[in-house]
Amino acid sequence: MNPPMSAYGQPPQGWPQQGVGQAAAAAPSPLPPVNGAPQNLPNQFQNMSLGGPPFKHEQAPFPNQPMVGRPPSGAPPVAPGGGIPGGFPQQQQQPGQPPLQNGPPPVGQPPGMAARPPVAPNYGLPNGHQQQQPNQPGMPPNPMVPGQPPMQYAPPQPMGGPPRPGQPMPAMGQQPNYPPQPYQQQQQQPPQQFAPPPLQAQPQFPPQQQQPYPGQPGMPPMPAPPGQYAPGGPGMQQPPMSGPGMPPMPNAAPGGYPMQPGQMPPQMQQGGAPPHMLPPHGRGYNQPGPQGYGQMPGQQGPHYPPAPAPPAQNRLDPDSMPNPIQVMSENQRSCGGEFATNAAGLVPPLATTKFITQDQGNSGPRYMRSSMYNVPVNTDMMKQSAVPFALIVSPFARAAEKELAPPIVNFGELGPIRCIRCKAYMCPFMQFIDGGRRFQCLLCKATTEVPAEYFQHLDHTGQRMDKYERPELVLGTYEFVATKDYCRNNTPPKPPAMVFVIDVSYNNVKSGLVHLLCAEIKNIISHLPVDEGQERTSMKVGFITYNSSVHFYNCKSSLAQPQMMVVGDVQEMFMPLLDGFLVDPEESSVVIDALMQQIPKMFGDTRETETILLPALQAGLEALKASDCAGKLYVFHSSLPTAEAPGKLKARDDRKLLGTDKEKTVLTPQSTVYNMLGQECVGAGVSVDLFIMNNSYIDLATIGQVSRLTGGEIYKYTYFQADIDGQRLVNDLIKNISRPIAFDTVMRVRTSTGIRPTDFFGHFFMSNTTDMEIASVDCDKSVAIEIKHDDKLTDENVFIQVALLFTSCSGQRRLRVLNLSLKTCNQLADLFRSCDLDTTILFFAKQGLFKLLENNPKAIKDSLITRAAQILACYRKNCASPTSAGQLILPECMKLLPLYISCLLKNDAFSGGSDLTLDDRSYVIYFVQSMDLLTSVRYFYPRLMAVHDVNVDDSNVPAAIRCTADKMMEDGAYILENGIHMFMWLGLGLSPEFTQSVFGAQCTQQIDTDRTGLPVFDNPLSKRVRGIVDSIQNEKHRCMRLTLVKQRDKLESVLRHFLVEDRGMSDGSASYVDFLCHMHKEIRTLLS
């Protein structure tokens, strides 16, 4: 319901005002001091980096320990036998291991935002108040939600299923376990005694011959198995660094921005924080000798006699590196309140920060984010910076609690008011002139006559008298009711429908899927979405089953029993039912009940193992086309379609090609028929969600195209068993069917002169170069759009408008409009102060996966590393004060760029090799291509949290810790989740009180890790831990199977795969510290 118009005219208390469409007032220079911040400090103190002083790590030698490797950087002490802490044994899943199990996660909504007083739905502010500009550059930095790190690397394991038989296992002797090591004494040392990162504290071991360790395609030179250095020439200088937060070297100029004329002082830039500086080599460094890089210390090469081991080396403390947990918590503290969108170029809070958007003329960041909020005025400056200009758009993102839903504006027969030239819709960027009789479009500068029905006089400031009564003149996000000119065939649409298409072949009957769906279908369809202002849903439902033929069901409410009609000739699919296929779920409730009782009986004894798929999809499409409505197909499929029928596929399961130049041959469709069907579905406004219950290869790369092109989603439940995975499937279906959704959509991006959208990435179809056609868009999907210059920009603001034409779930044709204004800049320092790293990383991911299917993987990964190095080198060269060449200086808003690029390169979507199935690799590629920003942050950098020491009286999810084995103790229990997988790791030293209360076991060894979910006990600790798991599940739009992993268990190597700051145990991928060194070397190469 829209608020009464009078509400638009009264501003919220305390919110000053600025006329929308005018240039934002310049920030005062200097800005007022931040409360509690020291003022007037000497420059060298203002430019100090975060963190504490460097530490020197000393470690006693273990003369009798044979060495093949060493623990990852900073690993905690290791108990005999390995396992976290101290690294995992190189054990992998055994063939025949029972499936991982997961408990029924309850369904619910994400936890509400921090309680705030209700805000009146005011759309603007009266004239005469001084404008307030929150979160300007120069104000405190923006933090993220504490405890919700970005996400990362998926494990070499079938998504949603048990470990794969046949997974290669390294010889057990390759990774000896270490005895318990005492904690090392740490002493504070002056910065110049801080050693370069890769030179880690080394125990002295007898020389040992080692096997070469294969690097990962596209990755930087990797450290060899634990304890080996990256390959390189003798005497090569390691890129030296220190923790962000080390003071600059003596006599070195402090880091920061050079003071440009009219520029703010460094301490006031980028939220008051200086750039991060990592110190160079200096006196006191233990430099490597002439020994080659690819060898163990004490080893001179294959043809030389062993040399005595060198003394222990200092190493970089990983805790001094920039880390996302700290960045998110700081942003939550400084930006966790209200974010008013009342000026151009305001950098929003991080995606993980809980905040309330006050829409005052620009769309909130949940709907649209830019990778930069100060846009370079010309192409040369843009190319020099190497930062992409990209948008991430989630047009139907969920509004937070206490945020205003976009209001609906109805102009009746007049229809939406538009610019006569560029066709932009009326928005706050339009300026009324000539007494209100015309308006000038700020996108294309054309002037348009105002229709008589829309005319209103202007006040003394040039603003319309009714401005604050009209959402489209003061808000950034709103909707127009469309006229019949915006409808197919100039006919208003019917309400969309949901069609359930169920594979009733032997596999789905045996696994219990058919019985489960029929038992739960009434519960599922009771959650159909309801449009605003409606009491009950307008959507209809239909049912199709198939094996080697297709079966339609007539569920008309006037029938005593449902009727079944079979189409046996699947070569030419047609719709045999003219009436009674799509029904109202309430009116036909009795008939639907009868049908759900009959289907399991009809197919309970089936022996059909060969199935079709394409004809079943065509059947659903034809049914919706015959009813002349848009909608969605929910398809439950179990096996490769090998029956003689259109869409028949052959097995091409050659996982050895993954990670090679030929991987694109198995990651692209083997046939175009599913692409063609997807395009036909888009033309009818029909999207397809695939629920895959496969026990073997199903060629998701091919059949998934129909979901990709229609804006659908893919769910995967490998080795599905109804008793184990049933509740997870039901919860996924309920979350899917009940979420905000739009059908039969067309999206177009319009920009002001000088820039234009050029490339689009996501799940949609484009029949031209400007319009994204999407059969359905829901709140969990996003698209990435790259924008480029086509002319030099003026000093005016940059304007972007995204318009989405769609059919609502009640059958109303509407337009949703999103508006964003950005500033322009001619200084690179201004650009680097306004970047949004989360947006940049998700854009790199979507763009990279698009290119991955056309190029070789190594080239894509190398280009990501090079692009990141170019960004940081440009900042170092143009924005930082002259400092020692050995220092790595990171811009404040991009200090996590090296970590996130490392996470991207490790992620299965980019790097899944032959230890992953082809279908799993395709699955994560589709997942990343359609995911929204918040999901991506938590997917690329998984969330790790301790649960053994929680306060039973607290109800919040525990704060996250860094995603590394260093932070996991043997007496602890930890949850790790990334949106697809959830693990609970149980240390062998876990207290009996915890194991008894939560698992009913005396000790960790007695816990049954094959069980699904957590047992239910009536005690405070059990309730608290189950509550944490439930809260995490409720935050996600799909349920995760909870896998219990005991320390030193064979599944530990799978969990290890997700600890993204550590070195990859199976693929040799670099640790965070080593990757940071490699990035520093790349930057220095570019600068030299």
Automatic annotation (TrEMBL):
Residues 493-737 form the Sec23/Sec24 trunk domain. Residues 742-824 form the Sec23/Sec24 beta-sandwich domain. Residues 9-28, 126-136, 183-192, 252-275, 284-302 have a biased composition (Low complexity). One of its GO terms (cellular component) is endoplasmic reticulum exit site. Residues 1-320 are annotated as: Disordered. Residues 416-454 form the Zinc finger Sec23/Sec24-type domain. Its main location: membrane. Belongs to the SEC23/SEC24 family. SEC24 subfamily. It is found in: Cytoplasmic vesicle, COPII-coated vesicle membrane; Endoplasmic reticulum membrane. Transmembrane segments: none annotated. Keywords: Cytoplasmic vesicle, Protein transport, Transport. Residues 955-1028 form the Gelsolin-like domain. Residues 836-937 form the Sec23/Sec24 helical domain. Residues 37-49 have a biased composition (Polar residues). It is a peripheral membrane protein. Signal peptide: none annotated. InterPro entries: ADF-H/Gelsolin-like_dom_sf, Beta-sandwich_Sec23_24, Gelsolin-like_dom, Gelsolin-like_dom_sf, Sec23/24_helical_dom, Sec23/24_helical_dom_sf, Sec23/24_trunk_dom, SEC23_SEC24_subfamily. One of its GO terms (biological process) is intracellular protein transport. It comes from Culex pipiens. This is Protein transport protein Sec24C. It comes from the Eukaryota. Residues 96-109, 137-168, 193-206, 214-228, 241-251 have a biased composition (Pro residues).
